[in-house]
Amino acid sequence: MRSPRSLVGGSPAAAHEITFDGRELPALPGQSIAAVLWGAGILAWRTTREGGAPRGAFCGIGSCYDCLITVNGRPNQRACLVPARPGDSVTTQEGTGHADLAV
Fold first, then answer.
1. How far apart are CA 100 and CA 53, in angstroms?
2. 103 pLDDT exceeds 60?
């Protein structure tokens, strides 16, 4: 039986790892950080500025800002749009992601 994969001869590239709050997670090439976190059962990765309510992905297409996360030290990255790259260090974002600038 012929399948789309057999027709193009494609095969998935090797998985790699990213870390989330120090925990190693497997990621596939092309996956967004949100997809990696969902796959690991992690549904919330930031807290709101007021009240600290948990948030994760809402729209999944970059229209909202519920999925903000800190990637390699850069806050306010939308997890649904950022591709997971080998060795990425991802951390939970609290509030604005700029706690060091708080007055």
1. 20
2. no
